[in-house]
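Q: Got a minute? One more chain.
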Amino acid sequence: MPSESPLEQGVLPLAFTESTRRSSDRGHIVDLDSMARGYDARDIDLARGVLEAHQVKLSHLYDRLSCLSNSRTRLLPHQIEATHRVANALRPRFILADEVGLGKTIEAGLIIKELMLRKGYSRLLVAVPAPLCVQWQQEMKSKFNEDFIILDRRNFYSVAASWGKHRRIITSIDFIKNPRYAGEILKTVWDIVVFDEAHRLRRDYSRVTQAYSFAEQMSQKCEAFLLLSATPFRGKLEELYYLVRLVDPHLLGPHNSFVQEYILNDVTDGDSSRKLGQLRERIQRVMLRRRKVDVGGFTRRFARTIRFDLSPEERAFYDETTEYVRREYNLALREKNRAVSFIMIVFQKLLDSSTRALLRALEKRKTHLEQSMLGPAVRAAMKQSGIASLPEDYNPEDLLDESDAPEDMLDNLEEEQRRSLKDLRREILTLNFLIQLGRKVKTDRKLIKLKETLARLKKEGRRKFIIFTQFRTTQDYLAAQLQPELTVTLFHGSLSLRAKEEAIEEFRHSTEVLICTEAGGEGRNLQFTNILINYDLPWSPLKIE
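A: Always. Here it is, folded:
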């Protein structure tokens, strides 16, 4: 029989014990990553267990949360519990994965404040989706009395020239993932790094996004590392693996072993169910996930499906467009034409949104194909003049559930030019037919049902309504149709940060309806209203949540 390792005998290697003692003396975390070199995964797990036991023995010295007396907000028990667990951890590196509405921003603020008070941390970087920068800045000031500056293109080089003066930074994920700016940020050692909406940090074995690559490098350069996401698992275990790897590179083991154990196995057999349970337990070491049903004290949600019947003209338009999308999508798959398959997915989503949005997109598609038949010289001239530029409706922010590189779409759409003139003519004829059908639709049954619903709710005393749609064309159409009977505010990703804040305040204080694209669904505090209408449902249940 093989002899027991020192760890199995309950003996910690000198590297671990000495580092633990020195780190405890300084009040800093133990750098397990650097100490782990030279030990296999089993030894690392055992060492972590011994260190955690050591931490429990000393926890009475750290139990009191200093940040509680400095917070300016009403705290909930689960937020205090999260702060206690992270602040007392040997390695404050966690995924905060509470459900939407449970206050992950407050939790992160409490943790930041506690680590500042307890460990003297001062260099802080918070990376969030661009629309949330101002909100984070305001929350940190109003609730924790901490001043953060927003880092962007306008002030980047002046701030980077004096990092010693600017120690609390909020910036957008899309901004700092740019290698042009990331290099300067990575030159600095940070105490705490936070990524909000961390599910945007996507990676799989074959593809690493710029955002993930930057987060991975930042993870190695900071003491405390927090990822915030209500949807850390989006259906792909491999993406979850890489997200967990950001906070603990060793927890789930080598990639090949993880894939073999949890992905390639048949998930229907009992052994795999047991393994998935074990995986859940392992991830819980670094992930805090609470649900509203567990926390309690929240208003119950009532969901209703409002049905309506299409008119004969709408039904004909819907059926013929669906057949067109099915045919062209299958053809694109056979020909490996990513551009066309993408456009067909968009058309199907538009079909579920509004006749007006779909009709406009079909007309633009027809114009695009007609330009494609003019020859490369004419196309190049038109593109240079802006005539053949990508339509606004093809903005991935509004059209896709997932998109990391919108600039790639322009290159992909050039694949259109490889199609034969015969194929282009055939599709143009189909588009002409569909456009004629669309123009025959004079009654919008879906819009009528929306107006009836809003009128009924107003009679019941409701005064604030949020309407979600995935498309800017539908958003503009609804705004025009609902006014002047209702006052309307629009919110979408193309607004400046200031305009977004003004739109929320306008809705809060004066208008009755806020019509949002997906940009309004991330991290916004809209709890002063309780009626939400999904005018077109996202295909992903996670988007609905």
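A: Confidence is low (pLDDT under 50) at residues 1-36, 55-62, 377-417.
Q: Perfect, thanks.
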